[in-house]
């Protein structure tokens, strides 16, 4: 038996049809009038938002911090506070969807703060590192 659900993900609504497996079939309903069959009501299912505990970081990220481009896990930090970096120099490795992605410096400067630690999970837009 197919069941329809309306779900919301990041503010965007989707209509999903799912087949119920192993359940007893529901009795068929007979429409009251042939020209107007009864339409099943689709229940609204909202995905619960899981809040992860805040990871400890060395300093709070400001608006000038380089932001995470995607959700993932920090595998390795290649620089330390005080290091001078050049534009496009790799700063850290972010694992996302089983792929290792280099996070590179957007400009030359000195690393003034690192806001994440190796093994920490980040979301898109989270501050990673500040270059001053």
| Individual helix count | 0
What's the CATH architecture of the largest domain? Answer: Beta Barrel
How are the strands ordered across the major sheet? 3-10-8-5
Provide the CATH superfamily of the largest domain. Answer: RNA polymerase II/Efflux pump adaptor protein, barrel-sandwich hybrid domain
Which spans have pLDDT < 50 for at least 5 consecutive residues?
49-57
Approximate shape: elongated
* Termini Cα gap: 60 Å
Biggest β-sheet description: 4 strands, antiparallel
Number of DSSP E strands: 10
Task: Kindly estimate the percentage of residues that lie in beta strands according to DSSP.
Answer: 35-45%
Number of domains: 2
Q: What's the alpha carbon Rg, rounded to whole Å?
A: 24 Å
Share of residues in helices: under 10%
CATH structural fold name of the largest domain: OB fold (Dihydrolipoamide Acetyltransferase, E2P)
Instruction: State the secondary-structure class.
Output: mainly beta
Helix and strand run: EEEEEEEEEE
- CATH C-level class of the largest domain is Mainly Beta
Mean pLDDT: 77
């Amino acid at each position: 038996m197919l069941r329809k659900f309306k779900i919301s993900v990041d503010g965007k609504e989707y209509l999903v049809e799912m087949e119920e497996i192993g359940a007893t079939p529901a009795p068929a309903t007979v429409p009251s009038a042939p020209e107007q069959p009864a339409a099943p009501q689709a229940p609204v299912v909202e995905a619960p938002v899981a809040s992860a505990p805040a990871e400890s970081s060395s300093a709070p990220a400001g608006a000038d911090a380089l932001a995470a481009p995607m959700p993932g896990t920090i595998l390795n930090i290649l620089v330390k506070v005080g290091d001078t970096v050049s534009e496009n120099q790799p700063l850290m490795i972010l694992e996302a969807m089983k792929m290792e992605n280099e996070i590179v410096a957007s400009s030359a400067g000195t690393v003034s703060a690192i806001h994440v630690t190796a093994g920490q999970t980040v979301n898109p837009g989270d501050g990673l590192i500040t270059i001053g």
